[in-house]
Design goal:
InterPro entries: MbnB/TglH/ChrH (IPR007801), Xyl_isomerase-like_sf (IPR036237). Pfam families: MbnB_TglH_ChrH. By secondary structure, this protein is α/β, with parallel strands linked by helices. It is 40% helix and 13% strand. The protein has one domain: Divalent-metal-dependent TIM barrel enzymes (TIM Barrel), CATH 3.20.20.150. An eight-stranded parallel beta barrel has the order 1-2-3-4-5-6-7-10, surrounded by five helices. Helix 5 links the parallel strand 3 and strand 4. Helix 1 crosses helix 7, helix 6 crosses helix 7 and helix 9 packs parallel to helix 10. The radius of gyration is 18 Å and the shape is globular. The chain starts with a helix and ends in a 26-residue tail after the last helix.
Length: 313
Amino acid sequence: MVEKRDQYREIVKALPNPGLGLGLRSKHFNYILEHSPAVDWFEVISENFMDSGGRPRHILRQVAERYPVVMHGVSLSIGSTDPLNMEYLGKLKSLAVEVKPLWISDHLCWTGVNSLNTHDLLPVLLNEESLKHICSRIRLAQDFMERPLVFENPSTYLTFKQSTIPEWEFLKYMAEETGCGLLLDVNNVFVSAFNNDFDPVNYINQLPHDRIVQMHIAGHQHCGDYIIDTHDRNVVHEVWKLFTQAWQLTGGVATLLEWDSNIPDFDVYHAELLKAKQYMSVMTAYNMDTQNQEFSSTPVSNPVDFLVNDFKW
């Protein structure tokens, strides 16, 4: 008898590579519908549409008729000690039935306790106990959704003393035990590596590349002693170089540019995404001039500007 884990693994292996995509943001709704720009696919924040039956949902239906769509969530809270929120999963499943996304992703994180949502992606303890706990929750969520889910490596700003498993190994074991897919956020690797003093090249080398179905790239704010994952500016050269490494190791997977604060006009956003084509070649990536990293002391937190609803979870 074939286990569901093996079924999910085969489904993940067969997922398509739709190309280079952008996040669907309300600022660009009218432009996209009026001009149908040549974007390969769009990623939508699931929570922005789950409780909306008005114009945002109407817009999403029209976009989904024209482009492949992927659903990306920020509130599954797979690392929480709270019971899985079945109301949330029910709404997520209903939206998926309507939108027919290529896949559904969320983050290796927790977002709150006692049913309160902090709207932040909080780091999880990485040890054998938390691995078993999170894998059991992934199995429940996948079986309820009747499909494999895809999980993204978070950006982190600390390392727990009690963690005993490197994050790349944790993700590998998680995929092996549940059949889930992985979303490699290259910018998150760079941010976490700087903040936690590990080698980002080794991190990417150690991942199970055949389980990666999507990559994220984004800009960040370098504050000198630490980096904040702000998604509010251009991608830096060091992240593009890591993207080149990941592109070679995965054989090329769906890639999306995140821009969630200080969102520019659509043509600027799209032009930044298309730079990825230059970095799909190793020679091009390593021969381009490096950029001077700008430091900023402005206090910031993780961006939530892309969220449009008030949540009850």
